[in-house]
Amino acid sequence: MAEDNNAAANxxxxxxRTPELWAKITFTFLCMVxxxxxxxxxxxxxxxxxxxxxxxxxxxxxxLGLYDMFVGGGLSRATVFALGIMPYISASIFVQIAGAVLxxxxxxxxxxxxxxxxxxxxxxxTVVLALIQAYGFALFTASLPAAVSRPGPxxxxxxxxxxxxxAIFVMWLGEQITERGLGNGASLIIFFSIVERMWPSxxxxxxxxxxxxxxxxTLVVLGLVMVAVVAGVVAITVAAxxxxxxxxxxxxxxxxxxEAARNFIPLRINxxxxxxxxxxxxxxxxxxxxxxxxxxxKLQEIAEYFNPQGPNPWLYFxxxxxxxxxxxxxxxxxxxxxxxxxxxxxxxGGFVPxxxxxxxxxxxxxxxxxxxxxxxxxxxxxxxxxxxxxARLVNVPxxxxxxxxxxxxxxxxxxxAQMQQHLLLRKYDGFMKKGRVKFRGRQxxxxxx
Length: 449
Known about the structure:
The strands form two sheets. The protein has a two-stranded antiparallel sheet. It has a domain at 28-213: SecY subunit domain (Preprotein translocase SecY subunit). The chain has 18 helices and four strands. Helices cover 74% and strands 4% of the residues. Helix 2 (19-38) crosses helix 10 (185-211), helix 6 crosses helix 8 and helix 7 (103-109) packs across helix 8. A hairpin with a 5-residue loop joins strand 2 and strand 3. It is mainly alpha-helical and 449 residues long. It has helices spanning 2-16, 19-38, 48-57, 62-70, 74-77, 86-101, 103-109, 112-143, 153-180, 185-211, 216-238, 275-284, 286-294, 297-303, 314-335, 338-347, 359-394, 402-448; strands at 240-247, 250-251, 257-258, 261-268. It is a multi-pass membrane protein. The chain crosses the membrane at residues 78-103, 124-148, 154-174, 181-199, 219-244, 265-294, 314-336, 372-390, 396-417. Keywords: Cell membrane, Membrane, Protein transport, Translocation, Transmembrane, Transmembrane helix, Transport. It is found in: Cell membrane; Membrane.
């Protein structure tokens, strides 16, 4: 235990002794403070209590509940950052999918100037999506009883301006974190939004014991389940199938020889990340959203079959599992291109032992990805449905798991990896500087003789 404490203290000391890393962490922290402050400033003209009561009655379910989780509760409080980073995320996903469908966009993604143009197009699309979402949210709040003091066209325009400006500012804040801070700005904004809402849910579990809703033994079992879930998510997030590649000896410029070497291509089991769960949940809540906004009794009856809290949730479980499995394969095929990987490997002179370079290598890699995607898809299905199953078994809400946990663990691991890279770079820089000083000193001494 003492060694672990010393190791942790040394790690913190190393971060503090690395000026560049410490400056990045400080800048990121200040940006997060600004974001969280803005997430508690309410937009004018809205009764927050009426809006909060609605979300409480809905128990955070549906598409709005999912969106509210990603923005740290800003939607249920109608803050100026109610849209959060989600319009930018949605625009980035659209551009990414367009790259897999449109050859011109795919060509732009492989060129430096093209990527700059796509970044600018993503910003424009973010503004358009923010305006559309702000308009929909304004109509939604105006439809709630006593939620808006003065509903009308002016309120709609006002909300569109406030929420769109907030979304643009959050997008700019995320880009600043990515450029000058530590980690991916958009991912960190979602990370802190989810963590802010995760802690109250954990402490709420202890209140269930005091009120007698669950027994202390049940709480202990839930705690063990939480630890096991975190361990499983970490394991699947970092798990990868390593494909052996051989790089032969090659003559470089000026007659230099590059030594033959063996390396590995890591193919992640969960290449799609959390996106299949988000896509599946977005599709499955459509019947409930239509029934809610239309008020049709027949649609509301049909929507009950897609309600996980309803009397018969089996259709929801089956449909969710099927959709998550399908979207896992679909999104993996979009973001992972085995043909490009095989071509790049061929250009470098590398090959997979026993497999011909080019098309055969692409086919082999595609087969491997298809096989390892299956356990990844099954794991995503279990993680997504587990909180609902546990909540039905113990009759209390269980919010630890699913989409939120996958995002939190993934972003935390990526950020820690970047911190480690900065520390290693600093260590090697120091080593090289010392080596140069010693080498120069020895050179001067030899020259004196």
